[in-house]
Amino acid sequence: MATEQHGGPNRFETTVGDVTIGGEAHSLSAWFVLALRLMMGYAFLHAGYGKLAAAEPFGAAGYLMNAVPEASPLYGVFQWMGTTPWVVEFLNVAVPWGELLIGLGLLVGALTRLAAFWGAFMMLMFYFSNWDVAHGFINGDFAYMLVFLAVAAFGAGRILGLDAYIEKMDVDGEPLLERFPKLRYVLG
User: In the beta sheet, which residues pair with residue 16?
Assistant: First the structure.
């Protein structure tokens, strides 16, 4: 099976401080970025829907108070969250609906960077709440956080996603992103 490069190599480069790194993505990279976006979208949509459709309403307090290991660097924060009524009520809504909306955004490729940011944030919180470094600091929660960040960094919503169309929308004779350049941070 042969692959074709369309529009030349996909070159990317960035500089942080005095260090510049870069590379070229293979033409198949778009398929893998799309697969990562769809995989995480399905996983989060499924998790959120499962919580919303469950016979018992989702409750964050029990998890926060009983499941977070004392060794977690954020143990005290999670205990505070679990004993603060307004935080618990917020999380009872934010977790299932957040998972559902993040999943939906990723599946259709709309507001992809925004969805991926919040997905990465949730995975960071899961990383600390599921704290176990018996096999090192890298676990599934940490890896999924990096997947979300990769989805955002590679503009995965432009690959068979609605962001490609949203970004080209005409607003008073001007492309949306030219008129509102900060939308680059939530689209793509």
Answer: 19
Structural domains in the chain (count): 1
pLDDT one-digit tens code per residue, 124-141: 999 999 888 777 888 889
Q: Which residues constitute the domain of residue 76?
A: 27-185
Measured distance CA(41)–CA(30) in Å, rounded? 16
Distance CA 33, CA 146 (A): 13
The reply to whether 3 falls in a domain is no
Q: Which two tokens stand for residue 132?
A: 């176990």
In a domain? residue 13: no
Does 22 reside within a domain? no
Residue 86 falls within a domain, yes or no?
A: yes
Q: pLDDT tens-digit profile of 134-175?
A: 778 888 899 999 999 999 999 999 999 999 999 889 888 888
